[in-house]
Amino acid sequence: MRYQLLLIVVIFLTACNSKVKQANKRGLEYMKQNLYEQAITEFDNALSINNTWFPVYYNRAISYANTRRYKEALADFNYVIANYPDHADAYFNRGILYENLGIYANAIQDYSQTISLRPDFIQAYHYRGIARFRMNDLEGALKDYNEALRLGKNVDLEVAKAKEFGLNSSALYFNRGVVLQKQGQLEAAVRDYTEAIDIDPSSARSYYNRAIAKMALYQSEEALKDLEIASRLGFEAADKVIADYFKN
């Protein structure tokens, strides 16, 4: 799961040394290029001048997280949240950090706090749904996916298709399809996988999962077509299913 890159919260842009702002700006430019180690160096420079300016801690936390320096990232997120407890994005990104560490209960708590601060935060519902799914809370996951999709109805489809947009409605439909499939709601799962494919035709896993659901519905011919597409897209599990079930 990728960390959300948010530049600077406007409320923090006050009473700051210009050298700190310049170092922070350089760090942000490195972040845009995914050059996180260089960004961290700039943020360290900024904090050596002024160690109380919250945006630098937030941006450094994002950079630490993207270099898998989770302990340092957690410390920076904790600092931001302790000093600015209404910072929804800090809770959200700390939730992602906990989720990547497999600490799902903490992730759910942070996503819930994000939602309490910003009830229209679509990504928080989506990611909380993923964490709940990881904890085998299928009903909770389904509820979150439904709410994320409901809120996403107002998002332009082209924006939703964009890989960098946090909603990623293709993934949302896929994830909801997985829950529905596990619950035995196979036809509903097929519909969600179809939605995911319509948004992202390169989603091999969506073709594969739709094939498995169709096999359970005794739609073997359609399932084989999906498996062949998944195989062409490089999804190796599809080759095994074809070999095991469709070749004599």
UniProtKB/TrEMBL annotation:
Transmembrane segment boundaries: none
Record's signal peptide: none
Keywords from the named record: Repeat, TPR repeat
Key word Repeat present: yes
Top-level taxonomic group: Bacteria
InterPro entries: TPR-like_helical_dom_sf, TPR_2, TPR_rpt, Ycf3
A matching Pfam family: TPR_8
Ranges of the TPR repeats in the UniProt entry: 54-87, 88-121, 122-155, 170-203
UniProt xrefs under PANTHER family: TETRATRICOPEPTIDE REPEAT PROTEIN 6, UDP-N-ACETYLGLUCOSAMINE--PEPTIDE N-ACETYLGLUCOSAMINYLTRANSFERASE SPINDLY-RELATED
Name listed for the protein in its UniProt record: Tetratricopeptide repeat protein
Source organism per UniProt: Odoribacter splanchnicus
